[in-house]
Amino acid sequence: MDKRENLPVHIGIIMDGNGRWAKKHGLPRNMGHKKGAETFEKISKYCRDIGIRWLTVYAFSTENWKRPPEEVAGLMALMRQYLKNMDTAFGEKIAVRFIGDRGPLDGDIVKLIEKAEAANIPEPKLTVQVALNYGGRDEIVHAVKKLAEDVKSGALEPEDVDEREIAKRLYSPDAPDPDLIIRPSGEERISNFLLWQCAYSELVFMDVLWPDFTPEHLEKALDEYEKRSRRFGGI
Ligand code: IPE
Ligand code: IPE
Ligand code: MG
Questions:
Q1: Helices H, strands E: what count in the chain?
Q2: CB-ligand 1 contact for 18 (6 Å cutoff)
Q3: Biggest alpha carbon distance in the chain?
Q4: Strand partners, 14
Q5: In sequence order, which ranges of the chain are alpha helices (DSSP H)?
Q6: What is the mean pLDDT of the chain?
Q7: In 10 A of CB 158, how many CB atoms?
Q8: Nearest bound ligand to the CA of residue 18
Q9: In this predicted model, what pLDDT tens digit does every residue of 181-212 receive, in sequence order?
Q10: Is 125 close to ligand 1, i.e. is its CB under 6 Å away?
């Protein structure tokens, strides 16, 4: 358990830099993703052990379909392999959920996701949300579509549309907003990650490629987070 006074409840991580890591080592890009998946395993267990309650990792964006078909196939194969080895991959007392649009995913992956979610323990120490075919804008579009249907059916009055009604229709309405979002790889942007939820997240950008990311890097991000003064518009 971490001794910090203000540990974030929810951490988001944009797992970026796998391709550059592979290039640096003269390996195919998919080897970078494989190594990145190992980092994910280690970091999620570390988060559990220090008392983080929620971890959301960006694994595949709605824009990542633009990549060469062999890279997309490699990423999906990796996901399949992970889902089949859920017990060892995610560790004890960790629940796993997937956020994103499942529509375009292969049917067997969707079945594996459903199976994994159904096997979750009721009171996990940590809930890991894997953002797969996830886009922040896409998530908002889905929520607004549901809202429009409810207005059309008369279940909701237009004047009752507010932030709560939108938030309720997002992929994971019971998850708190992320307190801290970490992006390794040196890139300093959000790339369509948790757009609604990041309104007041603390952002930490780090100059390390995701496959090289260690618990020490996470601790550095937590040090930085501890120094921030969160005001949420107040004083
Ligand atoms: C992140 O690493 C993994 C995915 C987006 C699936 P990248 O593959 O984007 O790595 P870089 O940015 O090319 O180094
Ligand atoms: C964001 O990384 C998506 C994931 C890490 C899954 P990208 O590598 O796709 O983002 P850009 O293209 O650099 O903005
Ligand atoms: Mg990238």
A1: 8, 6
A2: yes
A3: 59
A4: 58
A5: 18-24, 29-50, 69-84, 86-90, 107-118, 136-153, 163-167, 215-227
A6: 96
A7: 8
A8: 1
A9: 999 999 999 999 999 999 999 999 999 999 99
A10: no
| 16-25 average pLDDT score | 98
Q: Say how many Å lie between the CA of residue 183 and the centre of ligand 2.
A: 10
Instruction: Identify the burial level of 100 via C-beta atoms within 10 angstroms of its C-beta, where 0-12 means exposed, 13-18 middle and 19 or more buried.
Output: buried
**pLDDT the model gives residue 89:** 63
Tokens in use for 221?
A: 């991000």
**What is the percent of the chain with per-residue pLDDT over 90, rounded to a whole number?**
94
Find how far residue 118's CA is from the centre of its chain: 19
Q: Which residues line ligand 2 (CB under 6 A)?
A: 14-16, 58-61, 64, 187, 189, 191
Task: Assign 17 to helix, strand or coil.
Answer: coil
The set of residues, in sequence order, having a beta carbon less than 8 Å from that of 16 and lying 6+ positions away, is 58, 183, 184, 185, 187, 191, 210
Q: Which two tokens stand for residue 94?
A: 């960790």
Looking up tokens 């889902």, which residue turns up? Answer: 83
- 181 - beta bridge partners? 12, 203
